[in-house]
Design goal:
- This protein is of the alpha/beta class and about 250 residues long.
- It has one domain: Vaccinia Virus protein VP39 (Rossmann fold).
- It has a 7-stranded mixed β-sheet, sandwiched between helices. A two-stranded antiparallel sheet has the order 6-7.
- The chain starts with a helix and ends with a strand.
- The chain binds S-adenosylmethionine (SAM).
- S-adenosylmethionine (SAM) binds next to α4 and β2.
């Protein structure tokens, strides 16, 4: 599909996510991303799958020189509109993360892919392209739904309540085989989006084959601010992590 599955829901996505990202991203995903990413001030950062630019703007606010890329032209329009309303010097491009010929080799210090790799049909190509675009010593940092515990149509939460306590677990019935699923993640989302499950060793193998050595694996757990906003989700995600952050360095 031209523009990808997010193109169809781009206006809805922009409205939901707004200028700074939705609460789930702001309170759980982004702190975990930034913790693994470290200092970005003065660095050239490519934000893959930038959508309406929520993470790109946050990176620019930390002092990075940011380029945001997304396959959805409509989401890039939203990102540019927001940049025009409050300029931060972020450059936005429509492009496929797996094929970015307009960007020269070794032109970025950091590449972020926040909740993106599992939305890419050709995630292997995107990892290879990230390796090409990174300077030696540069890092790719990706957040994703935890491939071991949050598998679309392959896992579910199981909450067993006894008289005085409860046991929270995740039931996984499909893990080993990569799969493609269409899901509706948000209330009133007008159309489904497409997601791809790949097991953890798939990601590790693609990174290593591309010359990117994993230097961080971080599982995000809720803090008090998240728990205040999402008390039910916080009970579950405090036991079993929903978000995995992978950092990998170009050797
Ligand atoms: C969950 S959203 C990412 C959210 C965003 N990173 C943020 O922090 O707000 C996934 C994004 O990946 C984009 N995408 C899907 N396939 C792509 C591809 N081949 N190349 C670039 N972007 C792609 C979608 O259009 C969508 O905007």
């Amino acid at each position: 599909m031209s523009g990808g599955s997010f193109e169809v829901i781009a206006d809805f996505w922009d409205e939901q996510v707004g200028e700074e990202g939705d609460a789930f991203h702001r309170l759980l995903v982004r702190p975990a991303l930034f913790r693994v990413l470290g200092e970005v001030a003065g660095l050239d950062v490519l934000d893959l799958g930038c959508a309406n630019g929520a993470t790109s703007r946050a990176l620019a606010d930390l002092g990075a020189r940011v380029t945001g890329v997304d396959i959805s032209p409509r989401l890039i329009e939203h990102a540019r509109r927001r940049e025009a309303a409050r300029p931060r010097g972020v450059r936005y491009m429509v492009g496929d993360a797996a094929h970015l010929p307009e960007l020269p080799d070794a032109s970025f210090d950091r590449i972020t892919a926040s909740m993106v790799l599992m939305d890419l049909e050709d995630a292997a190509g995107a990892i290879r392209e990230a390796a090409r675009l990174l300077r030696p010593g540069g890092r790719l940092v990706a957040t994703l739904f935890h491939p071991c515990f949050q598998i679309p149509d392959g896992s579910s939460w199981l909450i067993e309540r006894a008289v005085v306590d409860e046991q929270i677990s995740v039931r996984v019935w499909r893990y080993r085989e990569p799969s493609r699923t269409e899901t509706v993640a948000k209330v009133d989302q007008p159309a489904p989006t497409v997601h791809y499950h790949r097991p953890l060793d798939w990601y590790a193998s693609r990174l290593v084959e591309s010359g990117l050595l994993i230097d961080a694996l971080h599982e995000a757990y809720p803090d008090d601010a998240f728990a205040e906003h999402f008390p039910e989700a916080a009970r579950r995600l405090s036991v079993i992590p929903g978000i995995l952050v992978i950092g990998a360095r170009k050797v």
